[in-house]
Structure formats: C-alpha cells, structure tokens
Amino acid sequence: VRIPHADTRLYRVPEGAEVVALVMLSDILPTGFECGVLNGRVAPGSTVAIVGSGPIGLAALLTAQFYSPGQIIMIDLDDNRLEVAKRFGATHTVNASGAEAVKQVLALTGGEGVDTAIEAVGIPATFLTCQDIVAPGGVIANIGVHGAKVDLHLETLWSRNIAITTRLVDTVTTPMLLKTVCAHRIDPKRLITHHFRLDQIQDAYDTFGHAADTRALKVVIEA
Amino acid sequence: VRIPHADTRLYRVPEGAEVVALVMLSDILPTGFECGVLNGRVAPGSTVAIVGSGPIGLAALLTAQFYSPGQIIMIDLDDNRLEVAKRFGATHTVNASGAEAVKQVLALTGGEGVDTAIEAVGIPATFLTCQDIVAPGGVIANIGVHGAKVDLHLETLWSRNIAITTRLVDTVTTPMLLKTVCAHRIDPKRLITHHFRLDQIQDAYDTFGHAADTRALKVVIEA
User: Fold this and answer.
1) Quick check: A151 and A175 in contact, CB under 8 A?
2) Spatial separation of the C-alpha atoms in residues B147 and B144, rounded to whole Å
3) Which residues of B touch A (CB under 8 A)?
C-alpha cells in the first residue's frame, strides 16, 4: 500500500498495543467521541442520553465515560443492544420510541431532561426525541448521517438556551484515543463481536447484514 | 416602585451616564449581544451576517463590533433599515429574500458563507436563509421568537461542523455593557428615533406601530 502524505496521516502502533483493538480507532471511536461526546460537552456529573445503541452509539457510550457523567441513558428498540450498553457502562436503558421514550427519560432526570442528547441514528424520529429530552441549557450533538430534513421545534426551543451541533469526524483525536487505549482507560476490542479470515468475507458481510439476529457490532477481517 | 430583591436586580447608573441611553440596556442590547454576538462567537476578522435589520438586529450589529469582525452583512427587505445599518457599521447590506439573498452573501464571502449567521426575525424563511449562508464550521445564533417549527436541513448540514444556538436573554452582560457605554465604545442612543411625553403615549404606540413609514426604531417615553 502506498499512502500519500503518510507523515500526517498515519500513527505508529504503540508498543504492546493489540492491533485488532486499534482497528476501532480508524473511525468509529473518533466519530462517537468527536461528534457525540466532545460536541455534546459531556462533563462530570452531567446527564447524557444516547439515542441509538448501535456501534456508533456504543462508541459514544465508551468515550463519554472519560468525563465521568452522572447518568448515561441508552435508548434503542433492540433489547440485545441495550443489554450490551448496560455491560458497556450505561446507567439506564430505555427500550421505547417517541413519546414513551421521552416520558421515561424525563422520569429518570427529575423531569428536567438531559444535559447532553446524542443522536446516533440519523432519522427524523430520533432527532425529534433528542429535542424532547434535552434540558434547558443542554446540547443536542448530532452524529447521525441524515438523508432527509427534520422538523426543528424552535417555537419551544428558541428560549431554552440549547445548542445543536453537527460534525464530520476528522480523527484529530486519534492520538488522544491511542493514549487512552495504552493506559487501559478504554478497551475498544469490546466493540468487536466477530472475526473472519479474508476468504470468509462473504460470511462476514452476511453476519453484519443481519446484525439483529447475529448480534454483530463490529466484524474484523484478518489475513 | 417597590423592587423585590433589588440588590441582585438593579444596577447603579454610572456617574455622567445619560439615563436615556441606558434604557436601551434594559433588554434590547443584552438580547442582541448575548443571543446573537456571544452565542454566535463573533471574532476578530470573522464574517457575520445578520438577518433582520430591526432594533434587535441593529443591537447585534452595534455589539458585534466589540470583537472587530471582518465583514458584517445586514439582510432585510426595507431599504430604510439597511441605510440605518450602514450608518451603524454594517460593511455590506443585502436587500433580498430567499435564494437571491443567499446568492449575494455567498458572492460577498468568496463562496464560503459566513462564520456567524444571526437570525433576528423569527420566521421559517429567515431561519432557512441562515442555514443556506452559514459556512462549514460556522454558527447560526437564533435571536428570533418563533411561533412555528422550521425545517432543519440535516441532510446537508450533518457533515458541516455547524452549531445552532438558542437563548433567552438573561441580562448577565448588563454590567459589561454599562462599562462599554461609559467608555464610549458604543452609543445606545442611536437606537432611539422618537421621544414622547407620557401624555402622548397613544401617538408613541401609533408611531411604533407604523415603523416602516415613520422609520421608528426605539421610542422613548419621558415623564
């Protein structure tokens, strides 16, 4: 492989690091961290909700814990993924959509809503949930890749001192994340559920394509 | 007048200050400054567009200049108000709505759009203009009091590293603004176009109610 401008695009694998764990740093961890956690200003003791417990939402969940928030509420429709979220450090899980999810999050936060609502799906319904659960003064940090416009309820939000952020990951935090891996502050291998050899790649695609059944998060191909 | 908790709600008029100028500090200047300029992160050399050249947009225009932005583009449909904006320090004015306004702002900014788009109207059309003129990495700072939801074009904005902010003025910056008035960094009296005695208050309402004809910005009632 020839890498143009490699001096500014590659990082040396730290001594003793497991290469397979570092595959998760190529974009999934920086995406959850930069677009969700940093933009969402997760802070010690704060309340966080992550809408979407897929690999990106889970990456946000893992990296949110760097900042010791008080509550991390994971919201999804798939109990398997919520169970994973619980093991990964979620303090609460909510299996519901729309108004029911909102009701549960408000109940968990004394009626106030969350300081940080991370959107990790990319559809109008989940972005709406974020608007309904964000507390006054809070942030909605969008990670989702949206294919359509969404409704923004400025008729209620105009006076609530909120911020909405978007970001395309640029991996500027990769050096920082490498340090957290070496210091055992985070174990990105937990996102890897399946391993395949290169000659099994068709099985790998099938496994990832039926994630609800196979419980696949991230699939690694080895030579 | 009896003021509850006056110690935390009142400010002493600085010696030598003109009381009539300070009337503008009761909420119009802090609103433009806090919700527009501070939330919009106006910075030296940056490009700013203010959509709406009414009193609140003009208050944002006056206070944006504290931070020495490179361009301040005022957008409105009323030539009289744009003329005022020019006198108040706008570097450019655009009399247009929708796609035409967008085209002109992009031409003024080398095709990039603005670092800060301040929404000072409060309707879907002007919020849409802000989305169309904000540069990647920029901020849309909403001041407008909206009565209806708006379209948010996340299908284009999700990857553009933008922020959208809302805020209800809390006048926390009043002490700072008082200092800028005393230091002659800003002259809030410029927002006052008409003076009436208390017994002329009906005329004052009529004047303010027909601002397009009377060119009224702010009307002061004196005893």
Assistant:
1) no
2) 9
3) 122, 127, 142, 144-155, 157-168
